[in-house]
Amino acid sequence: MPTLPLSLNAICGLACEPTLLPRVRMAIAMVAQEVFAESPETPGYPARWNLSKTVLSPTAPQAAQMMVGIVASPPMIAAAAAAAAAGAADAAAMAAAITDDEILDAIRTGWNAVAGVSPAAQQTVQVE
User: Fold this and answer.
1) How far apart are CA 23 and CA 98, in angstroms?
2) C-alpha 119: how far from its chain's center?
3) How far is CA 122 from CA 49, 72, 126, in A?
4) How far apart are the first and last CA of the chain?
5) CA-CA distance, 80 to 86, in Å (whole number)?
6) Which of the residues 91, 95, 108, 112 could staple to 117 if both were Cys, CB 3.0 to 4.6 A apart?
């Protein structure tokens, strides 16, 4: 198992950072719109679509619930570690250093897990 580039304390601080929550809420809504535009043939589509329907207008509590999984995702861990390596000393500074694209990437990466799409379904490849 790989070593975390940040302590769990630092990751928890980022997940609880109030300045990051509004950006995550908007990114969730953006990714939900992308999922609505996907082909119904996308592996796991029913669960992905249902999550989109549920969080299209994410409330603060919904976004806060998703925040833990988003912050713990590999793209956000990498972004937070890069911010810390660049001198961001606390959660607010790390959150400010994380780009919108990095947040969107983390949500896109974690969408299937939050939707409950199994890894086996994600690996299904259609053969024509």
Assistant:
1) 10
2) 16
3) 14, 20, 11
4) 37
5) 10
6) 112
pTM of the model: 0.81
> Cα–Cα–Cα angle for 96, 12, 109, nearest 5°?
70
d(CA 126, CA 41): 9
| Measured distance CA(94)–CA(6) in Å, rounded | 11
Q: Taking a C-beta distance cutoff of 8 angstroms, is the pair 121, 42 a contact?
A: no
Residues 59-115: tens digit of each pLDDT: 788 888 888 888 888 889 999 999 999 999 899 999 999 999 999 999 998 899 888
Give residue 128's pLDDT. 41
117: its two tokens: 């799409």
Instruction: Provide the 10 A C-beta neighbour count for residue 80.
Output: 26
